[in-house]
Write a structure and sequence with these properties.
The chain has 127 residues and is α/β, with parallel strands linked by helices. The chain has a single domain, classed as Roll (2,3-Dihydroxybiphenyl 1,2-Dioxygenase, domain 1), CATH 3.10.180.10. Helix content is 25%, strand content 29%. The chain contains four helices and seven strands, in the order βαβαβββαββα. The strands form two sheets. The chain has a four-stranded mixed β-sheet, with helices on one face. Strands 5-7-6 form a three-stranded mixed β-sheet.
Length: 127
């Protein structure tokens, strides 16, 4: 027996805010919306993918944003993504350096923390 991958990360969101989720995860981060199975779609929320990363946002009636727990998304073109986040009103913050990566944190429209990480070797090989 072994774990061989990660299928998705689930974040919570308030009821009825799917358009805000789409504006951020699709419009700012550039992810693609995934169709939810009909029996789950009735609950609300929305699912996204970007490469191998899948983020599911599910409605939580007593919603509280995840301020510490977070998904970390591997990205290419972090500087451009930072500019897009800033332009959309989601200013990134930095933290302690992590060897081998440039990284920032950004809050989604609901206050959930999302880490954006770019491996240094990938960036350096494109310069």
């Amino acid at each position: 027996m072994r774990i061989h991958g990660l299928d998705h990360v689930q974040l919570a969101m308030p009821r009825g805010e799917e358009e805000q989720a789409r504006a951020f995860y699709m419009g700012v981060l550039g992810m693609t919306e995934l169709p939810k199975p009909p029996h789950l779609a009735v609950r609300g929320g929305v699912w996204f993918s970007g490469g191998a990363a899948h983020v599911h946002l599910g409605v939580e009636n007593d919603f509280r944003p995840a301020k510490k727990a977070h998904p970390a998304l591997l990205v290419e073109g972090l500087a451009e993504l930072i500019a897009r986040c800033e332009a959309a009103g989601h200013p990134p913050t930095t933290d302690e350096p992590l060897e081998g990566y440039d990284r920032v944190y950004v809050a989604d429209p609901f206050g959930n923390r999302v880490e954006l990480m770019e491996p240094l070797g990938e960036r350096d090989s494109r310069e």
